[in-house]
Specification:
The protein has 159 residues and is α/β, with parallel strands linked by helices. Helices cover 41% and strands 20% of the residues. It contains five helices and five strands. A five-stranded parallel beta sheet has the order 2-1-4-3-5. Helix 3 links the parallel strand 3 and strand 4. The longest helix is centred in the last third of the chain and has 20 residues. The mean pLDDT is 95.
């Protein structure tokens, strides 16, 4: 199952970009268990005047970018919290059910548009604290890599 990280905003060179690239590169090890490669889609923030319009515009563009994905995960602060093990099991179950592509969708600074949230198979929270978008992407990339290591029995995850 291919994995896509679709996000509003572009990561600049720096620590967050280095972290995301590191974990995306490590995800190549997921090929042996049918996970990967990882594709990244970065879209510019909307220029609409109001927050509701921006969220709607961004949601529309994100969904166009991941239209081939048959599994969609919306990252949202109001979403479901999961342990790393539960997240790995969830991804493994989607893969085992024949999922071809899983898209992990990160909205803009105003949050997710309703179209993304209503069409998601899972609305996922990375935690109760608000994270900058670049850091949220780095955490997501690490958790995807961790899921691969859990599913392969690699000692990276030592819980």
């Amino acid at each position: 199952m291919r994995l896509t990280i679709a996000a509003i905003g572009r990561l600049k060179d720096g620590a967050e970009r280095i972290l995301v690239d590191r974990y995306v590169d490590r995800m190549k090890s997921g090929k042996s268990i049918g996970l990967g490669p990882v594709r990244e889609i970065e879209l510019a923030e909307s220029r609409q005047a109001g927050a509701a319009e921006r969220k709607c515009d961004e949601a529309e563009r994100l969904l166009r970018g991941v239209s081939a994905a048959d599994v969609r995960v919306a990252l949202d602060e109001g979403g479901r919290s999961m342990s790393s093990e539960a997240f790995a099991r969830w991804i493994g179950a989607r893969r085992d059910a024949g999922g071809r592509e899983a898209a992990f969708i990160l909205g803009g600074p105003d949050g997710q548009g309703s179209a993304v949230l209503s069409g998601a198979h899972l609305v996922l929270s990375l935690g109760a604290m608000t994270l900058p978008h670049g850091l949220a992407r780095a955490v997501l990339a690490e958790q995807l890599y961790r899921a691969v290591t859990i599913l392969t029995g690699h000692p990276y995850h030592r819980a």
